[in-house]
Amino acid sequence: MKKILVTILIILFAAVAGTGLYFHLTWEKELSPIAYFLIEKDLLACGSTTKETKCVITGDADWLFYQESQLSLVHSWEDNTKQIIAFNDSLKNRGIQLIVVPVPDKLLVESDKYLPFFDEDLIPSAYRRWAEKLNKNGVILIDALDEFKRIHDSIPVFEPYESHCTYEGRSILAKLAANKLKYATKDLSKKSYTLRDTTIKGTGNLFHLKYGIYAHYKMKEKKVVGENRKNYKGPKKAPILVIGDSNAGEGLSRASDVGSLITKETGVETFSISKVGAANFGPIFFKGKSNFLENRRAIVWVFDGREIYGHFRNPQF
Fold first, then answer.
1. Do 182 and 57 lie in a common domain?
2. Last residue in a domain, options 50, 74, 98
3. Which of 80, 79, 75 is closest to 28 using CA atoms?
4. E strand or H helix at 84, and its extent?
5. Domains: count for the chain
6. Are 193 and 59 contained in the same domain?
7. Domain range spanning residue 50?
8. pTM for the structure as a whole
9. Where are the beta strands (DSSP E) in 113-265?
10. What is the pLDDT of residues 249-295, one digit of tens each?
């Protein structure tokens, strides 16, 4: 009853104040009116309710989120499964296994930090349909969203100022991917790797984007080391190639990235190639570079889950 009254009051206030908020017809009526209202309000504050903008939205207790995450909740998704399936089939014809690893969207995992007063599950049914279609067409998909949500209150898979998941989140993704790599790597020789505790500076990319300054804080994470006790750095001709956006390995996460952690779990060497903002580049990553696929056993494609509602291109190699 309280939720209904709050909803009515806010909508009436908006009408009286003339804020210009409105409801898109593309909404699938999965969100409560209050959640939809608040998302629209934040999108307006970012300058657009229909297009991506370089904008950060503040949730509860200074938790920060990309505007793009909110946008994907109130607009229809573009069906990009055909492109991903074609990418999978192209690699399979070359004897290479593809593993698709969308890093769960921070907003979907930490929805209670965005709408703290409402028990709102922000996972759209479009996401479930997207995952189901890929699975039905033989694409190996690491769907860790439910696992991230299940543990996020006890294990920090995200932190307030950063869009990328933590070491704990990357470790979960690596273990799930490693389990799927068993067949592709069963006949390869294995090496032993260990983990070393380290403390790094938090990057706080969302904090920097919003305020123009860097946040000063420390984070604990584990780095993969070999028998020489040096941080892992994979060879270019490794049998497992990890590609993707900055979630595939960037900056201070070196040797603690998903690829390195897969090496720790499998004992098989990986090599990572990452490019900031290249989430949907997977299918065209090897355009003009198909020889780069020689002697590969598997491609692990890691990218930010907030990108999966958009356009992907057909494979070009």
1. no
2. 74
3. 75
4. helix 81-93
5. 2
6. no
7. 2-74
8. 0.89
9. 140-141, 194-201, 218-225, 240-244
10. 755 578 999 999 999 999 999 999 988 877 677 888 888 888 889 99
